[in-house]
Structures are given as C-alpha cells and as structure tokens.
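Shapes recur. One chain:

:::
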Amino acid sequence: MPPYDRLDTERALQHLPGLPAAGASALHVLAQDDDRERLYDVVSQDRGLSARLLRVLDSPFFAAASRADTVRSACLQVAPKTLERGIIASTVLGLFPGGSGNGLDRYGFWEHSVGVGVISRTLAGAVEGNGELAFTGGLLHDLGRLILDVYFPREFHAVLRYQQRHDTWIRDAELAVVGFDHCRLGARVAERWGLPDDLVEVIRCHHQPEGAGVRHGATLIVHVADVLARGLEFGNPGDDTIPLLSQVAMKRLGLNWEDLRFSLQEVEDLLPAARSLVHATIGAEATVSA
C-alpha cells in the first residue's frame, strides 16, 4: 500500500519545494513592472539559470529575434512573453537532476519532453499558433510524472510495478495506485509555482483535449505532438504505450494526416538539436557571458 494511501494532490503538494528562487524572482519582476535592469540583476546572480536561458533562447525552438549573445542583452532586448517562457523553460530544466532516477530514465524523459516541444512548435506553425507557447507547453506536459519519480519514489515504484503486472498505460497505473495521475499533479504544481494559465491547462488536459474546459489551442497541439513523439519513439516518457489520437483535437486544429506527415519531415532535422539541448542543460552549470 502506498504510504500516502491514495490521498489527493493537496497532501502531496505539502512535500514539494517551490520554484527555485532565481526563476521565481525573475518571473515576478517580469510580471509586475517589466524592470529589465532589475531582471538582469536577478538572472545574472544565478549562473546556472543564466547559462540555461541563453541556450534555450539560442535554440531553434524560439523566435530568431529572441536570440542574444549575453545575459544582459537577453534580459534587456527579448520580448516579454518570449522571455517569460524562456525563463520558465530554463528554470524547470535546471530544477531536476539527471541520471536514472527512481525508475524513470530522466535524460530519456527530457528528450521525450523536448521532442514533444519541438513537434508542438512545428504544428503551431502549421495552424498559425504560438510556437514558443507550444514548445514550452510540450516541454512541461509530463511535469507531474517527473515529480512522482523525484519526490515520491516509493509511490512511483508501485506505479511501475502495477503497470508491468497489468500491462497497462502508465497513466492508468498512476490512477490505480496513488489515486491521481501526472496530469493533475503537474497542473497543481504549476499553479502553485504561479505559471501562466495556458501552460497549466496544457499540463492538466493534454490527454483529454476534448474536455469542456480546454480553452487554448496549445493544449490540442501538445496532445497531438505527444502521440507523434511516442510513435517516433523519441526519448522515454516512462512507458511505450501510444495513446489514441483525439479526432476532436485534429478537427479543431484543422489538421489531417497529410499535414502531420509534412510537419514530421520538418521535425526530423530538429530532433538532434532537441537532444543536444537536453544534455547541455540538465544538471549543467556552465560558464556564461554576462
């Protein structure tokens, strides 16, 4: 029996840390008064965040106009929403350690997550959606599963044992063992961290994009991208199940299988950069130009 005895996420949240101070402070400054000099002071004091932010903004997954050579130029020149999403991505990438984890291949997990982000960004271009939002949503969509692995290892081991014993989708195993799935847990953590509503919705609803509460196209895009990334076997989301593709999501996005085929052709050239971003940012504290 899991030690939390199928308690809901509110009890679980009591055992989780908040967003790291530098990332939280940077997001607060950006949201409150957009004081770029003060933002630079906050970001530059954390060398790990600074290095990851430059790598994320310089990746092909953010707009070319957002690229900057130094932390100062990034903080002073990048558009507010682009910078917000870059800080969120950089902070979360640095929050969790790499390695084998407690049953989850964390580098494989992040490769899957970044891969979903890459496919999401490409699909967003096909439907005139926001590519940076789609990428960041794809990056964070399975946040709850990583939290289970890092902070609730006994429960997560029980989930994996149930999954193997019953040969079921890992999300069904989560519901059976702990009473909630990674979508609910990840969304509540994102809310606690003060992340934007559109990202919270992606995390909560990416497996149920036809739900009545879905308001953002990014949620539909990330759902489709997650199915495609699993089909491509890029990275390791925790199991090898491929969920059903929501035809409601496809219809609402105006996509067909020919659109997906063309998008995946574009994605193929970007996946090596996705893998490189993971291995350059997870657990890395690199030297960076101020």
